[in-house]
């Protein structure tokens, strides 16, 4: 598990490092630019996450087929995941292009929304390549070869940092583009990531034999719809969680730019920490899917609980750090010696202390959600997530912030409550997997028998 999880975790850190670099560099331009970049990315990220959630179904389908040695099923799943990605690309771009209207609807205008619109109109051009990269990423990870993804994303993060330096501030003769420079750097890196991984899949012997790009135009409606059936609830689930945090940012807008900037800092720190259990959970999803495909019930149990122990153990460490030394952590992003940023620093520290309360819950819900996806159990987890995040988390955030008068701190208490409820619900569902029929053989009816595992 550790051997598979470590490259996936490093890949997640490389991915979030790009946004963290953007926040750090935009902070040097002032709170308005940092708030605009944060809000613009939040809108983009929620649309992108919905697409990711749908496409991540291909990881479960590929892992199950690979575990059953159904190599034709592997190829079918990857090809149809590409078609799903193409189906998603155009509406996703339209939503991102018009995302600034959401900020206007939330009651924000002026420079912050203008800068956020510029950010969205620039980063949108990387979406088709980003979705294609996701399909290839899940393909190679489902076959237990995530190291190339790790190398690509770490390299992409380094290139993104260099491009940020050149394009945000205008060094070495480049134009100073501000938020457009940050967005353009990210879009360019997504193009490079897709081309890098596509070249690897075409040249590597293990992946070349699947011919995922051959006869690409042949329709396979059964597998295409299967990707949607498994993936759509996941897309709704991840957007329900991310949308909770986006809604928290919109609530912060009502409290002022200072709260938005401080929230962005605390959220970025928790997002970096979250990448660890998320990466571990994705490794668990692959292993659960492979064992499920091989009809190894004990392997399913072992993979899920090992992933849970690793993910929650790490989050216990981050919770301790955030509780004992929040100022030191926040100072990695915001300079407390800058008088302009000192109010942001102080408020972000108070938010981070509250964030420490839900770290273990956040890790548990991430890992358990991924383990259930490995079993292609996505509809009920979606319902549980919607109830916990919105029926409890958002309502509590609003009431505590405005009715109870706690302000930004109240928003973060509401987030903590919602995550705790979802973590408990998903853990209970996986614990009852036998009683709920999640391991029944009829759920593997799409896979061939062991005697039929021949075609490559």
Distance between the termini: 26 Å
Q: Provide the residue-averaged pLDDT.
A: 85
What helical percentage do the residues reach? over 70%
Q: pLDDT below 50 for ≥5 consecutive residues: which ranges?
A: 445-456
How many helices? The count is 18
Gyration radius, in Å: 21 Å
> Quick one: biggest sheet?
none
Please tell me the total number of domains. 1
Portion of residues in beta strands equals under 5%
Q: How many strands?
A: 0
Principal-axes shape call: globular
Element string (H = helix, E = strand): HHHHHHHHHHHHHHHHHH
GO biological process, one term: monoatomic ion transport
Keywords: Antiport, Cell membrane, Ion transport, Membrane, Transmembrane, Transmembrane helix, Transport
Protein name: Multidrug-efflux transporter
GO molecular function: antiporter activity; xenobiotic transmembrane transporter activity
Write up what this structure looks like.
- With 456 residues, the protein is mainly alpha-helical.
- The protein has one domain.
- Helices cover 79% and strands 0% of the residues.
- It is built from 18 helices and no strands.
- Mean pLDDT is 85; it is low at 445-456.
Question: Can you give keywords for this protein?
Answer:
456 residues, mainly alpha, 79% helix, globular, disordered C terminus, cell membrane
What's the quick description here?
The chain has 456 residues and is an all-alpha fold. The chain has helices at residues 2-27, 31-55, 57-67, 71-97, 100-105, 111-123, 127-142, 147-169, 179-203, 205-208, 221-253, 257-293, 297-324, 326-330, 342-355, 359-374, 379-403, 408-431. It is built from 18 helices and no strands.
